[in-house]
C-alpha cells in the first residue's frame, strides 16, 4: 500500500499563495488517482481537487476553481496543490488521498474512491 505525506501548510494573509505537496512512497503515475480534501472548521470535509491516474485529467471544487491548480511530478512521486488568492474560507486541514480505481465526474468527489490518506497539513488564512 502507498504511504502519503503532506507538507507545505502554513499561516498566510488573504491574497497570499501556498503550495502543498503530497509525497508518495511509490509510483503514482498510471497506478493511483490522487485528490486533495480539506477539513474546514464548523463546515466539515470537502473536495478540493483531483488528478487522474494518467495525470491528464484534473477536477476542482467549485469554490477553488480558477485559484488552485493540481499537478503531478512523476519523477518525485509527488502531487502538488498550488493555491493562489487565498481567502479565509480556504483555511483548514488539507489531506492528500490516493485510490487505485479510476475517477470520473461521478466518483471524484467521494471519499470512498480513495483508499489511502495522508496525515494532513494545516492551512491558516487570516489578516
Instruction: Report helical residue fraction.
Output: under 10%
Mean pLDDT: 95
Shape: globular
State the end-to-end distance.
40 Å
Question: What structural class do the secondary elements suggest?
Answer: mainly beta
Work out the helix count.
0
Order of helices and strands: EEEEEEEEEEE
- Report the count of strand segments: 11
**Uncertain spans:** none
Main beta-sheet strand count, sense and barrel state: 7 strands, mixed
Binned strand content: over 45%
Instruction: Write down the Rg.
Output: 13 Å
Describe this structure in a few short sentences:
This protein has no helices and 11 strands.
Structural topology:
Elements: E1 4-7, E2 10-12, E3 18-24, E4 33-40, E5 44-51, E6 58-60, E7 68-73, E8 78-83, E9 92-99, E10 116-117, E11 121-125
Parallel strand pairs: 2-11
Antiparallel strand pairs: 1-3, 3-8, 4-5, 4-9, 5-6, 7-8, 9-10, 9-11
Q: What does this 3D model show about the protein?
A:
- By secondary structure, the protein is mainly β.
- It is 0% helix and 47% strand.
- It contains no helices and eleven strands.
- Strands 2, 4, 5, 6, 9, 10 and 11 form a seven-stranded mixed sheet that branches. A four-stranded antiparallel sheet has the order 1-3-8-7, with no helix packed on it.
- The chain is globular and about 40 Å long.
- The model has no long low-confidence stretch (mean pLDDT 95).
Structure characteristics:
mainly beta, 0% helix, globular, 127 residues, four-stranded antiparallel sheet, seven-stranded mixed sheet, 11 strands
